[in-house]
Amino acid sequence: MNTTILRIMKAIKLFMLDLDGTLYRGIIPIEGAVTFVKAIRASQRRVVFFTNNASKTPEAYIEKLSLLGFEPGQDEVMTSGDVTIEYLCSQRKG
């Protein structure tokens, strides 16, 4: 791997990873994705799994990611719906 890329990767403290098409396709993990996530964790950095598909709950994504071998924590999965709700609540007056 390019030394510039390695230097940049070492500086990153949190990896926000997209799901479908990045970590898996359907029910198949993309080659190297599980190993990559495990390497991030082994280097004491954080992983957040993010999707712009709000048709399922974070719990459903946690279950799917677990079955695929990613072992997500309860606080590591976010959907666009979650972010929208947080934003709207923060903008609510009174």
Secondary structure blueprint with pairings:
Elements: H1 3-11, E1 14-18, E2 24-25, E3 28-29, H2 33-42, E4 46-51, H3 58-68, E5 77-79, H4 80-91
Parallel strand pairs: 1-4, 4-5
Antiparallel strand pairs: 2-3
How would you characterize the overall build of this protein?
- The strands form 2 sheets. Strands 1-4-5 form a 3-stranded parallel β-sheet. A two-stranded antiparallel ribbon has the order 2-3.
- A hairpin with a 2-residue loop joins strand 2 and strand 3.
- It contains 4 helices and 5 strands.
- The longest helix is centred in the last third of the chain and has 12 residues.
- It has one domain: 3-Layer(aba) Sandwich (Rossmann fold).
- With 94 residues, the chain is α/β, with parallel strands linked by helices.
- It starts with a helix and ends with a helix.
What is the compact description of this entry?
By secondary structure, the protein is of the alpha/beta class.
